[in-house]
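Q: Structure tokens for this one, please.
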Amino acid sequence: MGEPSTAVRVDGAVNAPRAFDVAALKKLVAHDTGPVDVVCASGATVGKVDNFRGVRLTDVIDAAGVKLEGHRDARRMVVVARATDGYVVTFSWNELYNTPVGKDVLVAWERDGKPLEPREGQLLLISGKDIQTGPRHVRQLSEIEIVRMR
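A: Here is the predicted structure, written as tokens:
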């Protein structure tokens, strides 16, 4: 396990890289996932959560302001989420902004009405609409990088 996460930094192809701690995220519109089964890549359910509370990843990205060089530039964007231990997951721009999946990708600070456990850090990322939620469940979330593909 890496260092405990206390904030998530948004950088890469953004207008102004910035960090969001829990207090800053709580100034954005909060959302709840409702019940989520944590399902690993093998298909086994490894946990059940009644609710995660946090903000949509898209709202965090929008708050940092993405640098778009042209009308179709967003199509070339990939969003990379990193944990303090080096764990990495990715999302395409279209997946986040143009599919139902994007509405349930949260940067969360609360599980079942309580702060996250120390092993999870102060922030985690969950993709609640994934069939297998475990592979894109990022504990100790520390960075969101916006990458423009060539």
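A few notes: The chain has one domain: 7-148. Residues 52 and 111 are 5 Å apart (CA to CA).
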